[in-house]
Amino acid sequence: MKIFDAVLDQVIEADKIFKTDTEWKVLLTPAQYEVTSNKGTEKPYTCTFDRVKNDGIYRCVRCGTDLFYAKAKFDSGTGWPSYFEPVSELNIHYAEDDSSGMHRTEVRCARCEAHLGHVFDDGPPPTGKRYCINGVALKFISI
């Protein structure tokens, strides 16, 4: 499959990641597993990424795929890390989500299908999007 590598600044070929629930449970913390595998949601205002001010990339905690540039992060006031655009549309998938009594658009990692969060149409310019993402689904690297 094709994904965008933000460090190389180019599209690359990468293998799709398939693991069993048992394998994910071994590799992830209970909170990471609950969110990424069972579409859970972390409690608002528990993510420490608000303190991160470095330039960098937020990657999928399960497979390391580049998902969001730090420069796309903004304070939405919701208690979850929010971004106005992904690194590349190649790196994420969308799915309709009618759970919790509302209609939303789920955001998943394209490479391993980890549940990341949801995207809404109430974000800032230039995109007007708010990618509301669970911090436990991400890991940060400075660049």
Task: For the structure shown, list the relevant keywords.
143 residues, mainly beta, Metal Binding Protein, Guanine Nucleotide Exchange Factor, Chain A, three-stranded antiparallel sheet, 2 helices, 11 strands, 11% helix, globular
Entry summary:
By secondary structure, this protein is mostly beta strands.
Description:
This protein has helices at 21-27, 30-38, and strands at residues 2-5, 10-13, 56-60, 66-69, 73-74, 82-83, 92-97, 104-109, 115-120, 130-133, 138-142. With 143 residues, it is mostly beta strands. The protein has a six-stranded antiparallel beta sheet.
CATH class: Mainly Beta
Span between termini: 25 Å
Shape: globular
Q: Could you give the order of the helices and strands?
A: EEHHEEEEEEEEE
| CATH homology superfamily | Peptide methionine sulfoxide reductase
Overall pLDDT: 95
User: Could you say what the CATH topology is called?
Assistant: Metal Binding Protein, Guanine Nucleotide Exchange Factor, Chain A
| SS element count, helices | 2
State the domain count: 1
Report strand order across the widest sheet.
Answer: 5-6-10-9-8-7
Q: Which structural class is indicated by helix and strand composition?
A: mainly beta
SSE inventory with pairings:
Layout: E1 2-5, E2 10-13, H1 21-27, H2 30-38, E3 56-60, E4 66-69, E5 73-74, E6 82-83, E7 92-97, E8 104-109, E9 115-120, E10 130-133, E11 138-142
